[in-house]
């Protein structure tokens, strides 16, 4: 089915809850895990699932994302009809930009027609997970339904006001669907869990075009796939739920899926990678997460000018990092970082090019790229003071924005 499938990746969201990390970049372009961008996980899933016609719908502050796609994902041969192509909003139909997920796809009906695809797979570009979409497409074909929605079991408390929730029968046919309900319906096997939509959809292309046109003519619609289109389909069509993390598929089943829509969720997902056995498996040899990497020298951990040994414990570091007598614990370091003598980095995420001065101390921080931390500076120890300078989350994570100048 893969060669008869056109894939859309929705990557145009504002990502306001991730501010200030999204001040100058879109949410899918936010760095993650020491070397990746968030969108790399969805793109890697497409690559390993044999999907070779991929359209990335962009809009908000998209330059960083476009550059990343050009540098890291120009890997397919257009002569063979293969592509990963960024598609910015172009006002193809009407005088407005993308107004919702359904409208974003509708605005590109010309590309759907040009593809001559039998099926259309719609994905989100801002989730962290590994998934074999081939198994999802095979499920859709085998069940003979109209639409298939990928779903995952989550705690009822976590699903409240956060996810679309599906209720299914024994054949996994969705009999009821509510977007962000205050009281999610639990699954039969466990009253503490519910079945949440992952925002992944398989449509027959002909049906997709029909429902998008109907949605455009609905003046009461906000033109959102989850909020407006899917509830109508559940009432009128056969919509099946595909349960994420099943035994089918070639990817090892870590069953990890995170919507990193807030700073705290983003921080926690990065910290998950530091567990002795990480819940997200980045090390499956035949399922690597591809990305763009600059040409940088190997990382080094060396004594500082005072003679203090560089210490590096339970952390991840990219190439080009130099720890010169500093102390790094439980942290994620991107490329080209310099940690000076007797500086302390604890439970923090440092983006590319950050420099930390001698005897500075950072705890529970996210520092955006190319920031220079002065010697003896302290961040994350006095949150009252930090709130006057930086964003501080509900869970006490301090975010130093790109371009911040101390003093």
Automatic annotation (TrEMBL):
Pathway field of the UniProt record reads:
Glycan biosynthesis; glycogen biosynthesis
For this protein, the record's InterPro entries field holds:
ADP-Glc_PPase, ADP_Glu_pyroP_CS, GlgC_bac, GlmU/GlgC-like_hexapep, NTP_transferase_dom, Nucleotide-diphossugar_trans, Trimer_LpxA-like_sf
**Pfam families attached here?**
Hexapep_GlmU (PF24894), NTP_transferase (PF00483)
Coiled-coil regions, chain positions: none
Which residues does the UniProt record annotate as the domain Nucleotidyl transferase? 8-274
Glucose-1-phosphate adenylyltransferase/Bifunctional protein GlmU-like C-terminal hexapeptide domain span: 297-400
So what does this thing catalyse?
alpha-D-glucose 1-phosphate + ATP + H(+) = ADP-alpha-D-glucose + diphosphate
**Residues at site: Could play a key role in the communication between the regulatory and the substrate sites?**
59, 97
Q: Name one GO molecular function term.
A: glucose-1-phosphate adenylyltransferase activity
Record-level GO BP terms: glycogen biosynthetic process
The Enzyme Commission number assigned here is 2.7.7.27
Asked if the keyword Repeat belongs to this entry, the reply reads no
Q: Which residues bind alpha-D-glucose 1-phosphate?
A: 98, 164, 179-180, 197
Which superkingdom heads the taxonomic lineage of this protein's source?
Answer: Bacteria
Could you tell me the keywords of this UniProt record?
A: ATP-binding, Carbohydrate metabolism, Glycogen biosynthesis, Glycogen metabolism, Nucleotide-binding, Nucleotidyltransferase, Transferase
Q: What does this protein do?
A: Involved in the biosynthesis of ADP-glucose, a building block required for the elongation reactions to produce glycogen. Catalyzes the reaction between ATP and alpha-D-glucose 1-phosphate (G1P) to produce pyrophosphate and ADP-Glc.
Assembly mode? Homotetramer.
Q: Which family does it belong to?
A: Belongs to the bacterial/plant glucose-1-phosphate adenylyltransferase family.
What protein name does the entry list? Answer: Glucose-1-phosphate adenylyltransferase
Give the organism the record lists.
Desulforhopalus singaporensis
């Amino acid at each position: 089915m893969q060669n008869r499938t056109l894939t859309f990746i929705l990557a145009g969201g504002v990502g306001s809850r991730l501010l200030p990390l999204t001040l100058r970049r879109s949410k899918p372009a936010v760095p993650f895990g020491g070397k990746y961008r968030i969108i790399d996980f969805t793109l890697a899933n497409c690559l390993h699932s044999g999907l070779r016609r991929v359209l990335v719908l962009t809009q908000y502050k998209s330059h960083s994302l476009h550059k990343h796609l050009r540098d890291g994902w120009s890997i397919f041969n257009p002569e063979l009809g293969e592509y990963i192509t960024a598609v910015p909003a172009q006002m193809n139909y009407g005088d407005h930009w993308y107004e919702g997920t359904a409208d974003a796809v509708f605005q590109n009906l010309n590309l759907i027609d040009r593809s001559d695809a039998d099926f259309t797979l719609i994905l989100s570009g801002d989730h962290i997970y590994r998934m074999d979409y081939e198994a999802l497409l095979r499920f859709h074909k085998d069940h003979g339904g109209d639409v298939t929605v990928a779903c995952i079991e989550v705690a009822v408390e976590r699903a409240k006001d956060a996810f679309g929730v599906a209720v299914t029968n024994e054949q996994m046919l969705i009999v009821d669907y509510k977007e962000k309900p205050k009281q999610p319906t639990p699954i039969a096997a466990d009253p503490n869990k519910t079945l949440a939509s992952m925002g992944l959809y398989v449509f027959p292309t002909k049906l997709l075009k029909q429902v998008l046109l109907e949605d455009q003519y609905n003046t009461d619609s906000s033109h959102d796939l989850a909020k407006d289109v899917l509830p109508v389909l559940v009432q009128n069509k056969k919509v099946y739920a595909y349960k994420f993390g099943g035994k089918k598929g070639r990817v090892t089943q870590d069953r990890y899926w995170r919507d990193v829509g807030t700073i705290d969720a983003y921080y926690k997902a990065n910290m998950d990678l530091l567990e002795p056995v990480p819940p997200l498996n980045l090390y499956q040899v035949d399922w690597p997460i591809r990305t763009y990497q600059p040409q940088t020298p190997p990382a080094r951990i060396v004594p500082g000018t005072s003679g203090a040994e560089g210490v590096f414990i339970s952390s991840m570091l990219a190439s080009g990092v130099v720890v010169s007598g500093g102390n790094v614990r439980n942290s994620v370091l991107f490329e080209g970082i310099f940690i000076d003598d007797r500086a302390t980095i604890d439970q923090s995420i440092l983006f590319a090019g950050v420099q930390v001065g001698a005897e500075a101390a950072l705890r529970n921080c996210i520092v955006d790229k190319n920031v220079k931390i002065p010697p003896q500076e302290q961040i994350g120890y006095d949150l009252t003071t930090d709130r006057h300078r930086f964003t501080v989350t509900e869970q006490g994570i301090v975010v130093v924005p790109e371009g911040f100048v101390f003093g």
